[in-house]
Amino acid sequence: MNINDVTETIIGCAIEVHKHLGPGLLESAYEACMFYELQNAGLNVKTEFGLTPVYQEIKLEVGYRMNFLVENCVVVEIKSVEALTDVHSAQVLSCLKLSNSKIGLLINFNVLRLKDGIKRLIAKDFSAFSASTQRLSMGKTT
User: Fold this and answer.
1) 130 falls within a domain
2) Is residue 30 part of a domain?
3) Residue 10: which of 83, 71, 101, 51 has the closest Cα?
4) CA–CA separation, 67 and 75 (whole Å)
5) What region does 100 belong to: left with phi over 0, alpha with psi -120 to 50, or beta?
6) Torsional sign, CA 87, 89, 94, 95
7) Do the Cβ atoms of 121 and 96 come closer than 8 Å?
């Protein structure tokens, strides 16, 4: 199965979950249902996959976790928020970088139409957010 087939299957699973639950629940409810749907679709899924960033020679045991790593190539991050922001995208891009994955799906279930809550991110996009993340860390919001 190529990476586009994997992302298509993941999105299909998300649509199925959203069709049954709708918006407004906690992220944990969507995560549990997504895990069930992804496994039923025959995908290899690691849940709450731990990441350990390394700074120079120091392993940072800071508890980074991604919701799902699917088929060892697609990071899936589940949200149930009013609106996705650059910080959410930066979180997924960081997970991509730390896991050496190429594709990430950021899925916000707190929308009326799920297609409005799905964002596909590619690892090369990381540089696009480094400047905005730097501005945020310095207290600027431009």
Assistant:
1) yes
2) yes
3) 71
4) 8
5) left
6) positive
7) yes
Q: String of b and e for 15-48 (b: at least 16 CB within 10 Å)?
A: bbbbeeeeeeeebeebbebbbebbeeeebebebe
So what's the pLDDT on residue 57?
81
| CA angle, residues 73, 77, 81, in degrees to nearest 5 | 165
Considering its fold, how many domains does the chain have in total? 1
Cα–Cα distance measured from residue 138 to residue 131, given in angstroms and rounded to the nearest whole number: 11
In this structure, is residue 142 part of a structural domain?
no
Beta bridge partners of 45: 70
pLDDT in tens, 37-88: 999 999 999 998 777 777 788 777 777 788 999 999 999 999 999 999 999 9
Task: Read off φ and ψ for residue 130, nearest 5 degrees.
Answer: -60, -40
Please give the structure tokens belonging to residue 120. Answer: 């596909």
Q: pLDDT tens digits, residue range 75-126?
A: 999 999 999 999 999 999 988 988 889 999 999 999 999 999 999 999 874 4
